[in-house]
Backbone:
């Protein structure tokens, strides 16, 4: 498959993007974004989702969706290629995923008393990676629906990483467990 640079992706016709999307071998990974406020973060998560060839992104709750101008810009057009769907809440997306024949394990990236280090679990597929709002994280009631909660160790003063960085760290850890 031919790779495209940012200029080509930005200028791609949405219909061509959908056609190209069908040629991508998707990995059994889903992203669930809950109340991600910053449109640049949403766009960056689309770029990450394309890099990991995720099956689908669920945009959930109070957040902007494509074709928002800032999402278009930050995603460099990958929102036209990565399958996505808006849901009123992350709990709705989780319930729909759990109703699939191959139920994905729902893994939240969050600091919580129940969380374990992201490298310490055995990832089985399919898997859905859930990230939350930049300020308050994943809602407690959403965490209760998850199969596992993972966190990234923080050794400095800062408590957390940017949502894209967190999703990338866990996403690439998950992808190391893929078997061809």
Residues:
């Amino acid at each position: 498959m031919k790779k495209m640079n940012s200029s080509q992706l930005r200028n791609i016709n949405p219909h061509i993007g959908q056609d190209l999307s069908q040629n991508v071998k998707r990995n059994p990974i889903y992203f669930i974004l809950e109340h991600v406020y910053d449109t640049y973060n949403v766009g960056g998560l689309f770029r990450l989702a394309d890099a990991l060839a995720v099956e689908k992104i669920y945009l959930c709750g109070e957040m902007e969706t494509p074709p928002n101008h800032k999402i278009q810009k930050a995603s460099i057009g990958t929102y036209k290629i990565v399958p996505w769907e808006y849901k009123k809440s992350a709990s709705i997306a989780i319930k729909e995923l759990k109703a699939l024949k191959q139920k994905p394990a729902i893994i939240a990236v969050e600091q919580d008393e129940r969380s374990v280090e992201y490298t310490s679990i055995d990832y089985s597929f399919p898997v859905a990676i859930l990230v939350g709002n930049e300020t308050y994280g994943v809602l407690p009631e959403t965490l209760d629906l998850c199969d596992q909660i993972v966190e990234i160790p923080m050794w400095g003063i800062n408590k957390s990483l940017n949502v894209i960085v967190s999703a990338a760290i866990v996403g690439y850890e998950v992808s190391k467990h893929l078997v061809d």
